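Lab notebook, design round three. We kept the backbone fixed and only want residue identities now. Task for the bench partner: fill in a sequence for the structure below.
Input C-alpha cells:
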C-alpha cells in the first residue's frame, strides 16, 4: 500500500459535544501523520476543546476570531497542511474510528481514485446506499497538489465548498470514488436543532451552493459538458444518432439558448431567497 503522508483537516463551528471524540479517533489512526483543526469562530466551548490539545506534536489548533464559513476554514487548513494526502473530516461525527478512516483512505492510497468521498450509511438496504446527497459529504480524501489551485475560490464558497471541489474534479476528469461508511453517524440538522432553525440552515446551505455554482458558472458548465466544446460534441453525437447530420448546428444553438436561461433562473431564485430572509429578519 502507498504510504504517502496524510494530514487530517477538521473544521468546527460550535461542536463542543463531539470535537474531542473526532480528534482522538484521528490521533489513534496510524493512517494520519498530522491533524489541523480549525475553529471557525465558535461561541460555545469549542475553543476550550482546542486548548486542551495545544502542545501536542500531532495536532495543530487554529482559531479564527469570527465565523467566516466552512469554505474559508477549509482553505486555512489546506494552506497550513503539508501532507501529500488531505483527509477532510466533519467535527460533528459521533462515532468516528480508525476503521472508517481506513475505508476513505484505502482507494486513494492504492491508486484507485483521485478523490474519495465517504458518506455515512446508518441503516440497511439499498435506500441508504443510493443517497443523492452523497457528493456533498464532508468526509473526503484527495491529493493536496490537486486542490491547491482552488484555494482562493474555496475561501469564498462557504457551504458551497463541496460542490466547488466536485465541479473542479469533474472538469479535470479526475477519478472520484464514493465509499459507503456503514454505521458512521453524522447527525443531520433536524437532530441537532429545532425544526424551524434546521429549515433555515438548510435554506442557507442551498443558497450558498447556488451562489457557488453561479460564481463559478464557466467551471460548472465545463464540468457538466455544457461549455461550447462539450455542447458541440454532444450535439454532433446526437445528430449522428438521429441521422440529422445537417442539423447539428441547430441543436447547438438550441443548447446555447437554453443553458444561460437556466443559470439566470438559478440566480433569480437565489436573489428571491435572500430577500425573503431579509424580510423575516
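Proposed sequence:
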Amino acid at each position: 500500500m502507498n504510504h504517502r503522508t496524510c494530514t487530517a483537516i477538521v473544521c468546527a463551528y460550535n461542536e463542543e459535544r463531539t470535537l474531542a471524540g473526532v480528534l482522538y479517533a484521528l490521533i489513534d489512526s496510524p493512517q494520519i501523520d498530522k491533524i489541523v483543526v480549525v475553529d471557525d469562530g465558535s461561541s460555545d466551548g469549542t475553543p476550550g476543546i482546542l486548548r486542551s490539545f495545544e502542545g501536542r506534536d500531532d495536532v495543530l489548533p487554529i482559531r479564527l476570531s469570527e465565523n467566516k464559513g466552512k469554505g474559508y476554514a477549509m482553505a486555512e487548513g489546506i494552506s497550513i497542511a503539508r501532507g501529500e494526502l488531505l483527509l477532510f473530516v466533519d467535527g460533528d461525527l459521533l462515532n468516528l474510528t480508525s476503521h472508517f478512516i481506513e475505508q476513505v483512505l484505502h482507494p486513494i492510497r492504492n491508486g484507485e481514485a483521485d478523490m474519495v468521498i465517504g458518506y455515512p450509511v446508518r441503516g440497511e438496504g439499498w435506500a441508504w446506499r443510493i443517497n443523492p446527497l452523497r457528493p456533498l459529504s464532508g468526509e473526503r480524501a484527495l491529493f493536496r497538489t490537486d486542490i491547491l489551485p482552488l484555494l482562493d475560490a474555496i475561501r469564498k464558497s462557504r457551504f458551497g465548498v463541496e460542490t466547488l471541489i466536485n465541479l473542479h474534479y469533474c472538469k479535470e476528469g479526475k477519478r472520484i470514488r464514493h465509499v459507503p461508511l456503514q454505521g458512521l453517524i453524522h447527525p443531520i440538522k433536524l437532530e441537532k436543532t429545532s425544526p424551524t432553525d434546521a429549515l433555515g440552515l438548510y435554506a442557507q446551505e442551498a443558497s450558498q451552493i447556488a451562489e457557488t455554482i453561479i460564481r463559478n458558472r464557466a467551471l460548472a458548465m465545463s464540468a457538466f459538458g455544457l461549455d461550447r466544446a462539450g455542447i458541440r460534441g454532444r450535439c454532433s453525437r446526437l445528430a449522428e444518432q438521429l441521422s440529422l447530420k445537417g442539423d447539428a448546428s441547430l441543436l447547438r444553438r438550441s443548447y446555447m439558448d437554453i443553458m444561460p436561461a437556466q443559470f439566470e433562473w438559478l440566480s433569480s431564485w437565489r436573489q428571491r431567497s435572500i430577500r425573503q430572509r431579509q424580510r423575516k429578519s
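Keep this in mind before ordering anything: Residues 57 and 78 are 18 Å apart (CA to CA).
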